[in-house]
Amino acid sequence: MSGHGGVQAVRAIGRCAVSLEKAAQRCISVLLELIQTKVNYVVQEAVIVIKDIFRRYPNQYESIIAQLCDNLESLDEPEAKASMIWIIGEYADRIDNADELLETFLETFPEETSMVQLQLLTATVKLFLKKPTDSVQRMIQLVLSAATNETDNPDLRDRAYVYWRLLSTDPEAAKDVVLANKPVITDDSSQLEPVLLKALMEQISSLASVYHKPADTFVSRQRLAVQTVDTLGATHNFAEEPVTTAAAAPQAASNGAPAAAAAASSAPVVDLLGDDLLGDSTPAAAAAAAAPRATPGGLDDLLGGLAIAPAAA
């Protein structure tokens, strides 16, 4: 089983367990068998999906936690570490050596990613609220100090300040916040509206099937218009017409060049703006429009070439 294929297979098993309650037990058995293979990427992906199974079926399959804890050394991916830390914190009251397990992760707290640091902080607080022993109290002090003084991550620092204030002022309120019952997760990946599902099926060979959105929601309409024009041009051979006109132009120029020149010299200049549009058709306005522009520079150029009659002597 290849790496990518193995990861996808484990994820599919986890999705079946979350979606089908009757198949959850069988899926967990298969996941435990895969963990026994000791293949690194399989073990890590199995821990991730088992965390989702615990969130879907709380307090039902915690008997397998011991087997998960035996594979802590295999975890080196941030998501797998965060998932295992969540499991330890969530079931800290049922794991005898939960403090020792968390200490193995706390040794590298400054070097961990923000995902792992956030889970370590929350899991340590959960452990302290469930088992307020002296060793756990020292542990929570170290974590809160590191999260508030030795990090530049605002999310981690702010969460640590919130926990610190709750624990120092009202531990019971901290329990209500941190240990509150959480809603179970559901697999909504297959819950699509019939109209949307039909549209996606018609566009299954495009990116619409990947984004789960119709193509017109993420493709620019301007780009579609350009492509449509290009398609029409190719269909009607619009590109050939200018070539024919251009080829006929030299012949027409050689045959009737003198007549065209004479017609151009005798034809009146048409005012594109129109006299009516300007609202001024007096001879003075025509003379002003026909006056030659002054040479560039000076006051005449700033005035736009307007013909200004000299003052009478």
Explained architecture:
The protein is mainly α and 313 residues long. The chain is built from 17 helices and no strands. Helix 2 packs antiparallel against helix 3, helix 7 packs parallel to helix 9 and helix 9 (154-169) packs across helix 10 (171-178). The longest helix is centred in the C-terminal third of the chain and has 27 residues, at 240-266. The chain is globular and about 80 Å long.
In short:
The protein is mainly α. Helix content is 65%, strand content 0%.
**Helix fraction?**
55-70%
Number of helices: 17
Strand runs, count: 0
Estimate what percentage of residues fall within beta strands: under 5%
Rg, alpha carbons:
39 Å
End-to-end distance: 106 Å
Stretches where pLDDT is under 50 for at least 5 consecutive residues are 243-249, 260-264, 272-279, 297-308
Would you tell me the structural class of the helices and strands? mainly alpha
Give the overall form. globular
Mean pLDDT: 78
Descriptors:
single chain; mainly alpha; 17 helices; globular; 313 residues
Strands, helices and their partners?
Layout lengths: L2 H17 L4 H13 L3 H17 L8 H5 L8 H13 L7 H9 L7 H17 L3 H16 L4 H16 L1 H8 L15 H9 L5 H4 L9 H16 L3 H27 L8 H4 L4 H8 L7 H5 L11
